[in-house]
Amino acid sequence: MQLIKNYIIRICFIFTIIIANISFATASNDAANYINDLAERVINIVKKTDLEEKEKESILNEIFIQNVDVKWIGRFAMGKFWRRITPDQQEKFLTIYSDYLTGLYVPNFRKYTGNKVKIVNATEVRPNEFLVQTLLTDSTNNLEIKINYMIIKNGNDFDDFIIFDIIAEGVSLITTQRAEINSTMSNNDFNGLINLLIRKTASSSK
User: Fold this and answer.
1) Strand, coil or helix: 150
2) Which of 25, 69, 91, 183 is most deeply buried (CB count within 10 A of its CB)?
3) pTM of this structure
């Protein structure tokens, strides 16, 4: 009887492992599909010939805001200084930072007319947190660029994924942003940071 009991326990344990592995694989596939679909949406919009450039820019801005956790990135980038500024300053910073980050990334999407995105791998690095590795091929300039996405799933639906870091050729967006912002804020110069972001936003829109 004890042997049978032990056998059943082992079988249950094996099934648990198998089910867990299937669950992890499914979640990773969902993360990969999310990034693949997002990339295809962006490239298809850029390639459209029946849209004015301003229309494309507006749509791409909306896609960026919907799929990148700009507020979290802003708070991370501010680092230790986040708690040192007032709630009003926090709100002002996030509003201006959102425009800045969108202006920094979205104009680059317009170059994607001859590009293709290949999903290399997707891994669940923590519960509901995924690393999706991609390869962006630029047939026009004969280039290959490694772009990895850190994404998190906040719900049960496919659309509940959101990007919180973009790592291009080993350079992390959030790490770079924190270094730049902390450099300006090292003298507690909040107004200087805001003015700098406004100038950079205006420059990127030209």
Assistant:
1) strand
2) 69
3) 0.81
Tokens 């080993």 sit at which residue? 170
C-beta separation of 45 from 51 below 8 A: yes
Which amino acid does the sequence have at 148? N
End-to-end CA distance of the chain: 79
What are φ and ψ of residue 35, in 5° steps?
Answer: -65, -40
Q: Which of 104, 146, 126 is nearest to 31 (CA)?
A: 126
Contact at 8 Å (CB) between 202 and 179? Answer: no
The contacts of residue 153 (CB under 8 Å, 6+ apart) are 27, 30, 31, 128, 129, 130, 160, 161
Dist. CA 195–CA 197, nearest whole Å: 5
pLDDT digits (tens, 9 = 90+) for 67-118: 999 999 999 999 999 999 999 999 999 999 999 999 998 887 776 666 788 9
Three-state DSSP class for residue 94: helix
State how far the Cα of 74 lies from the Cα of 134, in Å rounded to an integer. 24
Could you give the C-alpha distances from 107 to 34, 65, 201, in angstroms and in order? 22, 14, 11
Best CA proximity match to 122, nearest among 112, 114, 130? 130
